[in-house]
Amino acid sequence: MVNERDIQLGSLRIFAAVAESETLTSAAQKLGVTQSAVSQAIAQLESLTGTELVVRRARPVRLTPAGNVLRDHANKILAEVREMLRDVSTAAAGDLPRLTVGVIDSFADVAGQRLTEMIAPIAPQLSLQTGLTMPLSEALLSRNIDVLITSDPLQEHAEFECLPLLRDPFVMIVSESLCDNDEVTAESLARKIPFARYTRETRLGKMTDLVLRRAGIDPPPRFEFDSTHSLMRAVHAGQAWAIATSLCVMQYPSLLNNVRTLPVANGASSRYVCLLARRGELGDTAIRIAEICRDIHTGHILPKILELMPWLEGQAVAITEAPQIWSA
Q: Total structural domains in the chain?
């Protein structure tokens, strides 16, 4: 069996040059080495792969089918090595060449363009990916994103640094048309009005179960949705009441007309949003982005939340210390 440690980058570089040359001599001249060195590199690769790679009698030089495969792989490997060296050099200078940031849509929608504008100076190339918690977590685990702003701290993965960002309380939302003059509570809503909820497959759905248990109610759902927009449309239309978070509610201001927001479980139930990044890979980038997110929440998002839900004063807050329990 071929040991990959026996294949040298120098040999791959020589082979790639031969593939682009008419003769072994011209390849040697292009690389500034002897023809003997070129021949030895090819012989070594043929010995390691156990097959002929070059038709030596052909003029110009012609690769065998196996040689064509090796050429394609060699070019990819050499390109990746060049990119690696550029990235290492850039990182040593204190800059990131590219940064891919995943953001749960509830924070991204409410933070708006400020988030992009404030993170952009950190890296020459910035990619912002938004969506639901679970797909974004999978993207982080597969290294498709570098930093994740999420409500799932992935506590079972010790390779990630977890920086707390904010406390996001759960609230009840119900159409004004369904509210009478009596005090509106979770118990009264559960008795009188159909309930809409996030699907149990989503992280918000799993948290909703915890909130309901804490509130001491178990209303059968009339509707289940995987998006906040659909949930709030049902509430706005007077079809149901629902439980969401302060950030989720603020995603769609137009759907808050004639909708009442109410505390649930005396404000004791919350989710926490955090920032995840692999330890030791991004320098102080994660800390800088975390500070930006907290500043956006305190200076831009929180005033709007308190204008609509003043009773969340002191409950919807930016945080720097991890909670004992990350949800509800």
A: 3
